[in-house]
Specification:
By secondary structure, the chain is α+β, with helices and mostly antiparallel strands. It has 17 helices and 28 strands. The protein has 2 domains: 450 residues, 3-Layer(bba) Sandwich (FAD/NAD(P)-binding domain); 196 residues, Phenol hydroxylase, C-terminal dimerisation domain (Glutaredoxin). The chain binds flavin-adenine dinucleotide (FAD).
Length: 689
Amino acid sequence: GSISAKSEVDVLIVGAGPAGLMMATWMSHCGVNARIVDKRGTKIFNGQADGLQCRTLEIFDSFGFGHRAWDESNHMLEICLWNPDANGIIQRSDRIPDTIPGISRFQQVVLHQGRIERFFLDSIESKSGMRVERGVLPTKLEFDESSAEDPNAYPITVTLRHLSEEEATPKQSATSANGAALSDGLYRSNMTPDDTNELIMQAELNKKANNEEIVKAKYMLGADGAHSWVRNQLGFKLEGESTDYIWGVLDIIPITDFPDIRMRCAIHSANSGSVMVIPRENKLVRLYIQLTTTEKGAGTKFDRSKITPEDILQSAQRIMAPYKIAYRYCDWWTAYQIGQRVGTQFSARERIFLAGDAVHTHSPKAGQGMNVSMQDAYNLGWKVASVVKGISDRSVLKTYQSERRRIAQDLIEFDHKFSRLFSGRPAKDVMDEEGISMEGFKEAFEKGNMFASGIAVNYGASVIVAKKGDAAEQGDGSDVAVKKKALQINSNQSLATNVKLGMRMPSFKVLNQSDARPSHFQELLKSNGRWRVIIFPGDISIPQQADRLANLGNRLAAPDSFLRRYTPSEARYDSVFELLAVHAAPRQKTTIFDFPEAFRPYDVRDGWDYWKIFVDDQSYHEGHGQIYQNYGIDRQEGCAVILRPDQYVSYVGSMDDYEAIDKFFSAFMIPQRSSHPKGAVSVPNGILK
Ligand code: FAD
């Protein structure tokens, strides 16, 4: 093919699965110039991953499409455990909540990946007009490492090949028993050999004019799945084992007398294996079944062409007997082999990153892959955006690997334990050492639920998490210089015992001071790349607290405050930092004018900003959020909290310790040209005064 074009882009994303789309969403919500390409000609329409954990829904909500997933999905509220009784007949032995009550304002839901990808695509396009470029495949990658630290360099050069429609369409293998075409996910399963090289070769042969272009990029993300071409180009490896469990997955509308078919169930039969039942949207139910175990190390690859939807159903029938299960409609099916591996490196010089299945693979049943993949890119996106925009220096990028590799390792460990417990045969009695104890299974399930929710994520000390870090907490990939910088300031966790450093900000209801409208605190924390400094001044009707607030306001308003130093002169006053206050004085005895102007910025055209000051008080219709009590903050003392743009807690300290907050940001932010961001000016004389 002939080279038709040369161009530059700040961020190039390869792969438009959940991880790539999350990255593209950040780029469009932060206004970064980016492109996203995928070798497939179309998006997927059904099947594939389906479980959305509560943390993922919180993230969707922060981008503005949480309600779409919440409304369309099936909500999973209860897990039923079924085990063989003394006679070997399955019976329900336990019921446990699917999502631990109280950990989030969302609960686990199920909706197929095609719909989830649709929400992303709509959000990306409406924000920035960016679209996935489909049928586009990178064929060559060059990386000039020597200019990796130069902020203005484009060290990455990629050749992109535009495929024909035929080349970009995945082959489908099966038809159903009645001869109708049935969509399967085999081409995307980790058991299928990757076809990237084949596609490259085909495209070489097809020497159409103008089908190749060269792109120079500042940053790149390989979100191209388990077979990652980007990872292979970098020569990076995944470490771990490919275990011998093979799973069949069947999406059907079941016809059954099994009473718990609309609950999530783990069913262990006495001798016929286990099935996981996942009730889904549109009357569908997904069955995950372990099909076979090959001898470990025997090297025999299971022949997946031998697996049919009928085989999977028959296994389910044996496990669920004496209950009957059949179907007239099958929506999708696949076969899946558990490989548990983690990448050793998540980036090349913090310029080319890997996320999602490209750096970790594991079994599908715990419903983690898609969630963790999206959360990788959620962790990375705002960091890359802030560096590209010249707000932060490159030190923040190092935290991607130190934060996410440990999560991937925890995930593999969790999956390992869980798979063994799920796939094993139930113990007949306490003497049966080969069998799995059902008590142990229940315990693991309950513990696993906290991990699986995504809420337990706790990032270690770094330049962007001001907590005391020990080696264990750091995870690997940590950087001594980064650690040293972070320890210059100390948090005081005791001022907000439930606003845990390194974890995501929990949510309770607050009222807007100006209009009394209640909202969940998390709803205020939109994903738009802004840092949040949240001042909890306590009860400001106490004179001492009012004085502390006034003093803090003076510091924040000073021409050399961090708010001014790090906000570009042409940008809006809250484009880098959003300053929020949540006070605890009676709402009806307070107005926004009891607050210094830094908390109610004034814009010449719009007047004061009424959406920065909130109160912990009784609402008319939705009760009292008791946010001070729930966060563990003293109403007489207050505190200050710094939140990252991804809502993780960076710092907790005294409400008026301006110096510490300034120091925190000074460790990684880049001073901007002018010290007067637009809008953050004092009220001109004569107006309203
Ligand atoms: P992928 O989704 O694999 O996306 C990679 C993208 O990159 C694809 O669009 C692909 O076309 C493209 N691509 C690949 N190579 C190239 C290339 N060379 N050039 C250009 N583009 C390329 N996870 C859950 O969280 N919950 C579940 O319930 C769940 N169930 C699952 C059930 C099954 C049957 C399977 C197979 C997986 C399941 N998973 C589940 C896992 C989940 O699907 C994956 O973890 C998730 O899709 C990973 O997202 P990703 O974006 O990293 O990669």
